[in-house]
From TrEMBL:
Keyword vocabulary terms for this entry: Heme, Iron, Membrane, Metal-binding, Monooxygenase, Oxidoreductase, Transmembrane, Transmembrane helix
Origin species: Oldenlandia corymbosa var. corymbosa
KW ATP-binding (keyword) present: no
Residues that, per the record, bind heme: C439
Name of the protein this chain belongs to: OLC1v1009095C1
Chief subcellular location: membrane
Transmembrane segments: 6-27
Subcellular location as annotated: Membrane
Cofactor: heme
InterPro entries listed in its UniProt record: Cyt_P450, Cyt_P450_CS, Cyt_P450_E_grp-I, Cyt_P450_sf
Family according to the record: Belongs to the cytochrome P450 family.
Highest taxon of the lineage: Eukaryota
Gene Ontology molecular function: heme binding; iron ion binding; monooxygenase activity; oxidoreductase activity, acting on paired donors, with incorporation or reduction of molecular oxygen
One CC-aspect GO term: membrane
Length: 499
């Protein structure tokens, strides 16, 4: 008895060791995780994300594999970097990963995530997705804005013609963004609000500021327990921006309600207010929902499409033979005595190939939007717990050397006779995502992008300003919700149609 008493502490320690060892082995076996880089205590892998996280994650995936486990603060994450892995998560396990995580920016700017982009998966998301698909982003509504698009692109062409007659250079990046902002505002609000100052702030700058901080790493999103401390001051900034937006949206809605104008073309405010007032929505739908959706449409559409036009023009300038071939295709159809119309775009197969190739190399939503799992699941024998974040590295998939030959080169001809499209039917090209949470603005984006690009290439030849050689054009990227050119595109337009 005394002997046992003497060894009591050692026995307890041994029992604890056995227990923990057993637990450790058992948990490891039960919770087999995908391979991934070792993280630091507390931070996890956050320190491995630099200024261009899509590039950092692509490098890490080359070492650890296309399904990579990481931890961002306390949040477990899976990073997917190959077409097969993307198909598994976006098709086979689509429903499990159909939710979105808490996002502090979207919480404040999206009326507590009542918007479509960050709304958690469930009946509310299903209803607003259906509403947006059928009432805002349908082919019929897209066509109803055709004349607005013609007029706005016409204004840009006229202003570029004036520059061309002086042989001067333009900052194409600024011009094209302003075209995007104006077209989005006209479609959504019926007016070009972004040109105007609003309570001492230029509205366009407010939108850009919100996009910029939304793309930064917010510790509150990765350490929920310290969210209330707002260590980086982001929540304060989001609340301030949300107030500017809210005041403006209230004013826009009031203007619409009080207006006697019976415009033939209804903008998004008209459409959503009609739905709200008719009570046809079949779910809670008040001004907060209207404002959340309006803001969502503005932020999603404003820069994304035009950043793609900017990347495509950059590639065409770097590849003069491709530019000539595209100009010839358009000229064969339209001639060079008149401006092209949207109806001329049908059957421009080389234009489609150029757009695909540009979106392969420069998908502006490089990491898509984060998904979150709704339940525990086992994928490829890996145990992934509920609330695991899913990041699809769209940028890495577009450059995957296992599925693309010469992946870093711009070669539209690779799509000749190929069935790969932009709808995601083949997971090697998914710039708009795939599945339940894929981009509902795809048709609108493609219509605008093809029209603007075809018009600019048909009307002008393009030279780089300051005698920069095409092969020396800086193609570096700035990561964001929309990943765009790091350096402005400065060009000299040369008008090429008959006067
Ligand atoms: C070049 C243009 C665009 C690209 C490359 C793009 C790409 C994407 C991607 C990758 C996603 C995330 C998919 C996912 O989570 O799996 C997305 C979501 C979304 N996009 Fe786009 N997009 C573009 C333009 C637009 C436009 C013009 C609109 C609307 C006016 C729009 C509205 C949305 C919305 C609302 C979502 C969230 C859908 C949901 O969560 O259910 N996008 N987009």
């Amino acid at each position: 008895m005394i002997i046992i008493w003497q060894y009591w502490p050692a026995l307890i320690s041994a029992a604890f060791c056995c227990y923990f060892l057993h637990e450790l082995l058992w948990i490891k076996k039960r919770r087999r995780l995908p391979p991934g880089p070792k993280g630091l205590p507390i931070l996890g892998n956050l320190h491995q994300l630099g200024k261009n996280p899509h590039q950092d994650l692509c490098k890490l995936a080359k070492k650890h594999g296309p399904i990579m486990h990481m931890k961002f603060g306390t949040v477990p994450a899976i990073v997917v970097s190959s077409p097969e892995a993307a198909e598994k998560f976006l098709k086979t396990y689509d429903q499990v990963f159909a939710s979105r995580p808490h996002h502090e920016g979207s919480w404040h700017l999206g009326y507590e995530q009542r918007n479509l982009t960050f709304s958690p998966y469930g009946p509310y998301w299903r209803k607003i997705r259906q509403l947006c698909n059928s009432h805002l982003l349908s082919n019929k509504i897209i066509s109803s804005f055709e004349s607005m698009r013609r007029a706005e692109v016409g204004l840009l062409v006229e202003s570029l013609k004036r520059v061309a007659s002086d042989g001067a250079a333009v900052d194409f990046s600024t011009d094209i963004r302003s075209l995007g902002a104006n077209m989005s505002c006209l479609m959504i609000f019926g007016k070009k609000y972004l040109d105007k100052d609003f309570k001492d702030k230029r509205f366009g700058n407010v939108v850009r500021e919100s996009l910029e901080i939304s793309a930064l790493i917010n510790l509150g999103d990765y350490f929920p327990l310290v969210r209330v401390l707002d260590l980086q001051g982001f929540t304060r900034r989001f609340k301030k921006i949300a107030k500017v937006y809210d005041d403006l949206l209230e004013k826009i809605i009031d203007d619409h309600v009080n207006s006697q104008d019976q415009n033939e073309t209804k903008d998004f405010v008209d459409i959503l207010m009609d739905i709200m007032e008719s009570g046809k929505s079949e779910f809670d739908f008040d001004r907060r929902h209207v404002k959340a959706i309006l803001l969502d449409m503005l932020i999603a559409s404003m820069d994304s499409t035009m950043a793609t036009v900017e990347w495509t023009l950059s590639e065409l300038i770097r590849h003069p033979q491709t530019m000539k071939k595209l100009q010839k295709e358009i000229e064969d159809k339209v001639g060079n005595a008149r401006i092209l119309e949207e109806s001329d775009l049908e059957g421009l197969v080389y234009l489609d190939m150029v757009v695909k190739e540009s979106m392969r190399l420069h998908p502006v939503a490089t990491l898509g939007l984060p998904h979150e799992s709704l339940e525990d699941c086992i994928v490829d024998g890996f145990h992934l717990e509920k609330r695991t974040r899913l990041i699809i590295n769209i940028w890495a998939i577009g450059r995957d050397p296992c599925v693309w030959t010469d992946p870093e080169s711009f070669i539209p001809e690779r799509f000749l006779g190929s069935s790969v499209d932009l709808q995601g039917h083949d997971f090697k090209l998914i710039p708009f995502g795939f599945g339940r949470r894929s981009c509902p603005g795809l048709q609108l984006a493609l219509t605008v992008m093809r029209f603007v690009l075809a018009q600019l290439v048909h009307c002008f030849d393009w030279k780089l300003a300051d005698n920069v050689e095409p092969s020396h054009l800086d193609m570096s990227e700035t990561f964001g919700i929309v990943t765009s050119r790091a350096k402005s595109l400065k060009v000299v337009p040369i008008y090429r149609l008959q006067k």
